[in-house]
Specification:
By secondary structure, the protein is of the alpha/beta class. The protein has two domains: 164 residues, Aspartate Aminotransferase, domain 1; 232 residues, Type I PLP-dependent aspartate aminotransferase-like (Major domain) (Aspartate Aminotransferase, domain 2). The strands form three sheets. The chain has a seven-stranded mixed beta sheet with strand order 1-9-8-5-4-2-3, with helices on both faces. The protein has a three-stranded antiparallel beta sheet with strand order 7-6-11, with no helix packed on it. Strands 10-12-13 form a three-stranded antiparallel beta sheet. Helix 6 links the parallel strand 4 and strand 5. Helix 2 runs antiparallel to helix 8, helix 4 packs across helix 7 and helix 9 runs parallel beside helix 15. The two termini are 14 Å apart. The N terminus is likely disordered.
Length: 451
Amino acid sequence: MKSNLTRRAFVRTAAAGSAALAWLGVRRAPRVLAAESDKPALLGGTRIHTGGWPKWPEWRESWEPEILKVLRSGDWSSSGGGGLVGDFETGYAKLIGAKRCVATASGTTALITAMHVMGVDAGDEVITSPFTFIATYNTILMLKALPVFADTDPATLTMDPASIESRITERTRAIVPVHIYGLPCDMDPINTIAKKHNLAVIEDACQAWLAEYKGRKCGTLGDLGCFSFQNSKHIPSGEGGAVTGDREELLDRCAAFHNCGRATGTFHGSGCFSRGSNFRMQHFQASILLSQFDKLVQETQRRRENADYLSAGLKEIPGVQPLRLPENSRPVWHLYAFRYDPAQFHGLSRDKFCRAMGAEGIPCGGGYREQYNDGLLDEAIASRGFQRLFPAERLKAYRDSFQELKGNQQVCETTVGMFQTLLLADRSDMDHILDAVRRIQAHSAALAKVA
């Protein structure tokens, strides 16, 4: 699997049966691999994992009556409020411990809604993580603001709080930490910095349903939190999203903005309408999501247990480094990832390592690449709008600053991961993953010579 494969394409491959990216775990005693001297499959040996992996998304017939009830009712739109979308909003807020939730059409529209409500506007700057799905960049750009990147901590794959303050300017309006792969960011120092500089904090929790940080769920740790329910997500509805929070006035503004600007609760704008768009969820999507609450809780526990087991075994293998989590936090592993050191595998490149794992029946790949070098941001800052909004010297300094992201560069070059469905398999399948890594380690010198 090539290192430039996008996360979403990788996830599609995994969901189709060949699987993808994943991270972390707990300790176990090293296990002797009986066939450790056998050839790796890539060198003509027998593959370790001959079965498949859980498919995604999963549909259950027991969910169908409620969906049919919605479709036959003809009441599909949530423009009037309430109904199944209202039930979902109430239930999801309770599930993550937020006071309130506003359901949206996608995670992207959730982020746009939250940033608009927190005052992000044309000519502003927003500090965020470079190691994320491209939607995080795009939502900031859509508001004609500049996504300024804090560096990535290679030990955690999340935003390095120590790199934030040096990025703050007089134009900075918000910080958007990303709980990537369901890994909680270290939120205490991020919130402290935000408070010091009077900045909004908008959590991109689009991959972090039920993830926890110091006893609280992600999506309740900043001013607003944003979630996605896209097809690959742990609680999917094809598309869908949510904004969560504890402040009624902010959620009223979110509800108004996502419903064409209609006056809502305490927020009336300048009359019956204010600025807004149609970012509403539909009732049949809410029905699909409501059916999955218990499933989400059960599968989250299973992912955690299998990830802990993997991490305990992987940490005993030279050249493989499981991730470090903030103190008293619990990830949910949308992707299970670890850091890979080719030097400890006789120079076997990460791409060849992933090929060798795939040959053993265990699909894996690299994570996000350095997307700020892909041309998207160059196109944005060269546009007429950004040229009007920002001085030329600021845009040049901004472009040059990408070279400072040494931690993120390291992460993009050394991360290996597997899609969350692998963590839903049996414990014996986790042994297959560990055995495959051990086999590749034992034969890495020979594998490094394979074209």
